[in-house]
Amino acid sequence: MIFEMTIQVRVSNIEEGRRWYETLLNKKPDFIPHDGFVEWELIRGCWLQVAEGDMTRGNGPIRLGVTNIEAERERLINSLNIDRFEIHSRSEVPVKWGTLSDPWGNCLGFFEYLDKTEEQERINSIKGIEM
Q: I need a surface site. Which of 50, 56, 80, 128 has the fewest CB within 10 A?
């Protein structure tokens, strides 16, 4: 039975990486077990690990669900000075999405549900709220 997951990205400088991901995620790390390593619990049981080390090629993207992708894009353009990324959609896909890279080349992205009822149902399910 799988009950938790971790995703790891690598950065060349852990302090710069920590600051960048704190801004991206809008929060301080939840766990710092040792030098060169920080972790955030994104949702219950889902951890993002940022580790200092050699980069890996071809990873990602790691996509994070948000309720307003345009607002997140503007926040990151202003706070992290990232390039404006394109937001995509297709009629057969229930979300719109966009992809960006961190300064170390890790592929990241966001997605937003088009159906706001479905989005709220997912949020409530993750929070353990019965409808």
A: 128
